[in-house]
C-alpha cells in the first residue's frame, strides 16, 4: 500500500469516526445542566425536593403534639405505620438455644450461644455474664446488635462493650446480624456478598413481597431479648439495647417497637433524612423503610415513639451521618420529652471523632445503662480487656450457621413466603373480575389513570434530517423538575403507516443508528417517538456508585423514591402513558392505537402502562425484559433489579398475570431472568 492510499484510508476512517460522533451528539437534546442541576442528577434533585416538602410537613405535624393524649395518639399511629411498612412480624417459635462452649475471663464469662429466631434460622451470639461472686443475679440484660463489621460479634469494639457491661454487673448478648460474622446467608457468594451489599441483595426480593431487610434484623433482635429473658440470671424487666452504626440502626428500630426495652443508646446512626439524603443518599436496604417520609416518620421519631424511655444518642462530629441532623433530631425529641415532664431521660453524647464505637462512647453507654437499669450513677472506667480471638468467638463448627443441619437462610424464608403468596394470587386471579384486579394494581403501584395525568409541556428545539425522514428534537415536561428528551422520527411518506412509542433502558438513541430497529420502522412508514423516560438516556444517573454493579447506578435514587412511597416502575409507567397520548395527538388520526416497544428494564413499566390502559395500545413488544418477579425471589441473587421493584406487588400480582391481560397483542422476545440472563441459557439460577 503506497503513502497516498494509506493517507486516503486514514482520512476516510477519520470522516467515519467524526460522522459517528456528530450523529450521536446531534441527537442529544438537554444541556449539561438545567437550573444548575447536572442532567444525570435530575431524579436525585427532584426526589430530594419531594423529601424536603415532606420534612416541612413533618415539622408542622410535630408542633401540633402538645398534650399527653396527642403524643400517645401519635406514638400509636406511627408505630403501626412502621410495623405495616416492614411487614407483619412472624409468630414466636421455640428458640432451641444451644451453648456450644464457655470461655472464662477475669470478672465475667462468655457463653457461645446459637438460637433459632425462626425455625432453623440460626442466630450466633456471645453472652457476656457477670461473675456471680461480684454481682448477685438477677442482672439487667443488654442486647448489643453489631454494626457492619465483617467479623460481627468477634469485632474488638463489640466484644469490649459486652465485657464492660458484664464487669459492671449486666448481662450482654452480642449477636451477629445477617450476613456478618458467622451468618452469611449465601456462603457461595463469599467474600463479595456480605454486610450492606448482602443486606441490599435480600432487600430486592423482600420489597416485592412487602417486607424489608429490617424485618429480619428486628425479629432477630426481639428474639435476642426473648433469649435474655429466658435466662434465670437475667431480670426480664430490666432490658437495655445499644449498638453502633448498623447496630445503631437496629437499636433505633428495636427501642421504637419493643416495649421491653427500658433504656437505649444508639451510636453513630441518628441524624435526619433530609441531611442524610443530601449528603449520603438513601443508603442500604435496612435503612430505608417503605414510605416512611410519606407517612411522617423521620429519625427523631425513633427517639420519640417510646418517650419517655431513657435514650442516649451517641454521635461523632466527623461521622458520615451528619451531626447537624443529629442535633436537629435530638432537639425535637428533647422538646417532646420536656413536654412530658421527663427532659432528663434523653441526652446526647457528642464525640469529637469519626464514625466509631470508641472507649469514650462505650464508657458513657455503660454508665447510662447502669443509671437506668441498676439505679446507680457513677463514672465507668474501661480496664484492659482480654478479648477472644476470632476462632474463640466462633459458635459453629466451621464458622457458618448455614452449615448447620437444615439451616434456613433469609432467601429461603422469602421463598417460603412467596410460595404462599403464589397460591393466594392464583385464587385471586381466578375468582376476581379483571377490572377490579387492575384497580388493585393501580393502588399498589400508584399509577394514575391517564385521564387525570396532566398533558406535558412541549418544547421543540431542533430538527435533524435523515434520508427518508426527519427527526424532531423535543423536550416533554410532565411536572416541575422532570424533563423527558425525545426524538420524533417523521417519515417523508404521507400518510404514515402507524405510530410506535419506543422506550429503551439505555435511552432514545440506543436503537436509532442507520439500519437499526428505529430506522427500519421509520423507513417502513411508521411515525416513531423514542423517549428517555425519567432516569434513562440523558438523565441516567451516573454519579452514584453504591454497589452499582449489583443494583444499578441509580440505586440510591430508587431508595429515595421508596422512602417517599413511590417506585420507578410507577413513575416510568406514567411517563410511557403520557408519551403514548402525545404520540396519538401527533398522528394523522388520533383514534389510531400506538405500537409500544420496550427494551430491557423498560419492559416492566411498559407492561404496567399497557395493561392499565390497554385501549391505547394496538400491540406491545417487550425485548429482554424480566420474566417474573417470583424469579427474583427464587433466584435470591439478582442483577440490577432494584429499579424494577414495587413494594408488596407479589401479594396481589406478578408480571405474567399482567401480561395475560394483554392477550395476543403482547409479544415477549428474549426474556431474561433475575440475573439478566436469557431464560433458555439458565433454567435454574437459584443461588444458595
Task: Provide structural commentary.
By secondary structure, the chain is an alpha/beta fold. It has 2 domains: 86-408, Alpha/Beta hydrolase fold, catalytic domain (Rossmann fold, 3-Layer(aba) Sandwich); 423-491 and 543-681, no CATH class. 38% of the residues lie in helices and 19% in strands. It has helices spanning 3-26, 42-62, 68-86, 156-166, 195-208, 213-230, 246-257, 273-279, 299-304, 323-340, 359-374, 410-431, 434-445, 517-523, 548-551, 555-563, 568-586, 603-612, 629-635, 655-662; strands at 33-34, 37-38, 98-105, 108-118, 121-130, 139-145, 171-175, 234-244, 261-267, 311-316, 346-351, 457-466, 469-479, 482-491, 499-504, 527-531, 594-599, 617-623, 666-669. Strands 3-4-5-7-6-8-9-10-11 form a 9-stranded mixed sheet, sandwiched between helices. It has an 8-stranded mixed sheet with strand order 12-13-14-16-15-17-18-19, sandwiched between helices. Strands 1-2 form a two-stranded antiparallel sheet. Helix 17 (568-586) crosses helix 18. The longest helix is centred in the first third of the chain and has 24 residues, at 3-26. The N and C termini lie far apart (59 Å). The relative contact order is 0.11.
Please give the CATH architecture of the largest domain. Answer: 3-Layer(aba) Sandwich
Query: How would you write the strand order of the largest sheet?
Result: 3-4-5-7-6-8-9-10-11
How far do the termini sit from each other? 59 Å
Mean pLDDT: 93
Structural classification: alpha/beta
CATH class of the largest domain: Alpha Beta
* Beta-strand proportion: 15-25%
Number of domains: 2
Amino acid at each position: 500500500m503506497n503513502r497516498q492510499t494509506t493517507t486516503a484510508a486514514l482520512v476516510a476512517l477519520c470522516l467515519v469516526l467524526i460522522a459517528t460522533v456528530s450523529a450521536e451528539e446531534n441527537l442529544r437534546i438537554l444541556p449539561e445542566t438545567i437550573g444548575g442541576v447536572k442532567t444525570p442528577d435530575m431524579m436525585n434533585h427532584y426526589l430530594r425536593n419531594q423529601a424536603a416538602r415532606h420534612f416541612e410537613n413533618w415539622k408542622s405535624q410535630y408542633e401540633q403534639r402538645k398534650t399527653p393524649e396527642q403524643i400517645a395518639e401519635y406514638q400509636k399511629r406511627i408505630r403501626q405505620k412502621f410495623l405495616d411498612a416492614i411487614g407483619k412480624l412472624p409468630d414466636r417459635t421455640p428458640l432451641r438455644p444451644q451453648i456450644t462452649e464457655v470461655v472464662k475471663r477475669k470478672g465475667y464469662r462468655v457463653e457461645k450461644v446459637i438460637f433459632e429466631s425462626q425455625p432453623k434460622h440460626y442466630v450466633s451470639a456471645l453472652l457476656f455474664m457477670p461473675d456471680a461472686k461480684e454481682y448477685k443475679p438477677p442482672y439487667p440484660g443488654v442486647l448489643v446488635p453489631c454494626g457492619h463489621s465483617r467479623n460481627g460479634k468477634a469485632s474488638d469494639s463489640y466484644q469490649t462493650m459486652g465485657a464492660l457491661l458484664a464487669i459492671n454487673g449486666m448481662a450482654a448478648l452480642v449477636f451477629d446480624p445477617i450476613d456478618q460474622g458467622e451468618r452469611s446467608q449465601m456462603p457461595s457468594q463469599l467474600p463479595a456478598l456480605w454486610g450492606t451489599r448482602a443486606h441490599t441483595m435480600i432487600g430486592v426480593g423482600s420489597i416485592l413481597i412487602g417486607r424489608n431487610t429490617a424485618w429480619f434484623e428486628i425479629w432477630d433482635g426481639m428474639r435476642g431479648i426473648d433469649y435474655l429473658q429466658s435466662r434465670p440470671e437475667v431480670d426480664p424487666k430490666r432490658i437495655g439495647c445499644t449498638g453502633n452504626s448498623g447496630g445503631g440502626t437496629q437499636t433505633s428500630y428495636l427501642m421504637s417497637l419493643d416495649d421491653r426495652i427500658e433504656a437505649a443508646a444508639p451510636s453513630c446512626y441518628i441524624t435526619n433524612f433530609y441531611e442524610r439524603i443530601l449528603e449520603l443518599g438513601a443508603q442500604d436496604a435496612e435503612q430505608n423503610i417503605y414510605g416512611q417520609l410519606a407517612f411522617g416518620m423521620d429519625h427523631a421519631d425513633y427517639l420519640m415513639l417510646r418517650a419517655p424511655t431513657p435514650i442516649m444518642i451517641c454521635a461523632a462530629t466527623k461521622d458520615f451521618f451528619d451531626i447537624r441532623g443529629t442535633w436537629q433530631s435530638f432537639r425535637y425529641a428533647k422538646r417532646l420529652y420536656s413536654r412530658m415532664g421527663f427532659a432528663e431521660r434523653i441526652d446526647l453524647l457528642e464525640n469529637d471523632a469519626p464514625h466509631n464505637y470508641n472507649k469514650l462512647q462505650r464508657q458513657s453507654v455503660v454508665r447510662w445503662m447502669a443509671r437506668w437499669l441498676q439505679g446507680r450513677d457513677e463514672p465507668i472506667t474501661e480496664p484492659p480487656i482480654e478479648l477472644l480471638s476470632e476462632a474463640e468467638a466462633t459458635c459453629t463448627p466451621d464458622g457458618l450457621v448455614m452449615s448447620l443441619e437444615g439451616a434456613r437462610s433469609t432467601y429461603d424464608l422469602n421463598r417460603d413466603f412467596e410460595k404462599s403468596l403464589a397460591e393466594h394470587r392464583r385464587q385471586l386471579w381466578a375468582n376476581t373480575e379483571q377490572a377490579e384486579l387492575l384497580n388493585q394494581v393501580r393502588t399498589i403501584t400508584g399509577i394514575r389513570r391517564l385521564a387525570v395525568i396532566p398533558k406535558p409541556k412541549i418544547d421543540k428545539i431542533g430538527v435533524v434530517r435523515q434520508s427518508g425522514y426527519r427527526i424532531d428534537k423535543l423536550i416533554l415536561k410532565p411536572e416541575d423538575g422532570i424533563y423527558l428528551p425525545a426524538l420524533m422520527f417523521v417519515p417523508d411518506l404521507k400518510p404514515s403507516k402507524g405510530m410506535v412509542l419506543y422506550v429503551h433502558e439505555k435511552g432514545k438513541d440506543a436503537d436509532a443508528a442507520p439500519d437499526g430497529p428505529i430506522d427500519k420502522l421509520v423507513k417502513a412508514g411508521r411515525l416513531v417517538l423514542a423517549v428517555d423516560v425519567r432516569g434513562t438516556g440523558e438523565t441516567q444517573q451516573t454519579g452514584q456508585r453504591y454497589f452499582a454493579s449489583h443494583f444499578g447506578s441509580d440505586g440510591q435514587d430508587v431508595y429515595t423514591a421508596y422512602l417517599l412511597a413511590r417506585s420507578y416502575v410507577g413513575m416510568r409507567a406514567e411517563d410511557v402513558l403520557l408519551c403514548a397520548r402525545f404520540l396519538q395527538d401527533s398522528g394523522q388520526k388520533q383514534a389510531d392505537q400506538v405500537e409500544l416497544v420496550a427494551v430491557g428494564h423498560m419492559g416492566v413499566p411498559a407492561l404496567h402502562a399497557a395493561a392499565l390502559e390497554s385501549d391505547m395500545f394496538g400491540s406491545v413488544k417487550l425485548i429482554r425484559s424480566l420474566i417474573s418477579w417470583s424469579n427474583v425471589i427464587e433466584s435470591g441473587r439478582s442483577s440490577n433489579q432494584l429499579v424494577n421493584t414495587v413494594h408488596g406487588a407479589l401479594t396481589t400480582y406478578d408480571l405474567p398475570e399482567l401480561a395475560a391481560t394483554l392477550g395476543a397483542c403482547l409479544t415477549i422476545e428474549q426474556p431474561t431472568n433475575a440475573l439478566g440472563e436469557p431464560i433458555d441459557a439458565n433454567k435454574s439460577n437459584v443461588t444458595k
